[in-house]
Amino acid sequence: MTSLEHSSENAAVSSLSQSAPDRQQARAAAQLLVAGLVSGLALHVLVWDRAGGSLGWFLSMMIFVACSVFLNLNEHREWRRRQWAWFAVMLVSVGMTVIRDALEVRLLMVFVMLLALGMMFYQSLGYSLTHATLIRVFGLALRMPLRMLGGVVGAVETLIQTRWHGLGQMQAIIRGLLLAMPLLLIFVGLFASADAVFSAWLDNLGDIMNALAPQTPLISFALTMVATGVLSCSVRKSECVDLPRAELQVRLPSLGREETAVLLGSLATLFVIFVVLQLSWLFGGQDLIQSRGGLTLAEYARRGFFELVVVAGLTLAVLMSVSAMQGHRGLLRVLGGIMIACVLVMLVSALHRLHLYIDQFGLTMDRLMALALALWLAFALLWFGGTVLRGRQKGFIVGLLLSGITISVLLALMNPAQRVAQVNIEHAQSRAQPLDVDYLISLGADAIVPLLSSAEGVKLTQEQSISVHEQLAFQTDNTDWRDWNRSRARAVQLLIDE
């Protein structure tokens, strides 16, 4: 073989080895864009301009999961197993919005879904949840929108480079447009809010654009871009991470022995004084409360519950911050343990106040949601004491996340709005007191079901019946299967049977 033939053969092999990754990248980019198109169209058809918490939402999530599974078919089994764990959380959270109608539950489940998506993105970059730190998690959460934009831009750019090699100028133009569009939207919104003349001109321009181009394709395009960006965050980055690990190592100011002693020592002293001074009547009866605090039992029950829950949350934040700032370990262990013990006593007191409040006034959604938060904070403080205070950082963050998700899902399963209605109905009947029907109606179909149930024996006035009809008007006038919700459908059926 001559040297010329040998060099030609090497050049051919080199060309093949370089073109193979290009074709693979182009195929991956095309698959991402197609999956984003399918998921975006599903969002438009099943979710856009539909009732919140309906069957369309769940079906749209199933399509998103199917698209993400398709994009990760060639990844390692371990990654796909982790993915399915988060998919299960997302499907359960969206599924709960289909069987519940309370706004608080729906917002909580949306938060759980976004949390699961964020954790999937975190693990897709090669980070382990077991060794997760709060700073790194927040840092990646702030970078996720940029990753979504980069996923769309990268897929389009890859296709252009592999399919149309000679259109370098067009590549730059498209890349510039993709980068400029979100900034233009932000600045246009700010200018429209700042100046009435510009806002009026923008409205006129919008009318002209609506006359020239239909709105539906624009909505589909926007939703497709969002879906593509989110899907790009669910694909495992096997080779490299565009967010270097070094960038996520934020250097916080460190706390020495003196700073730790003053900060935690003063707080621990205050907590001990508060608990000791009020321990005798924090759990006292009506006579002791009136004699020591000058309060009626009703006034005592109203005060303090939310404040003590906030104290627990701030305490957890302070202890986590001191730990992240490398505070003195010995002092953190001792003083942090004292603070946790005092806060747990305060949380027990808060639960006692809640019990007295229910006995006097009934239950509200605000207090029930705060109760769930208090239980999570109690676990978080105990978990902090069992891990970080013992020098075991590993697993602390993932424990917080999993416990928060668990409590949120259990709360949704409990049907809090229905529980509030049942407690208040029983309270009104047992004490022969008027029932705040208007408040229960405002909670949605979950609370309306007990009101309409014949077993409860609640008699609605004409005005209240009108309010119930108005609350369920959308469901009664709409027969679209995409808007089906189990709780609303059940309330409508009870309304028809009356």
UniProtKB/TrEMBL annotation:
InterPro entries: DUF4153. It holds the Pfam family DUF4153. Keywords: Membrane, Transmembrane, Transmembrane helix. The chain crosses the membrane at residues 28-48, 55-71, 83-100, 107-125, 172-198, 218-235, 261-284, 304-322, 334-356, 368-389, 396-414. It comes from the Bacteria. Coiled coil: none annotated. This is Uncharacterized protein.
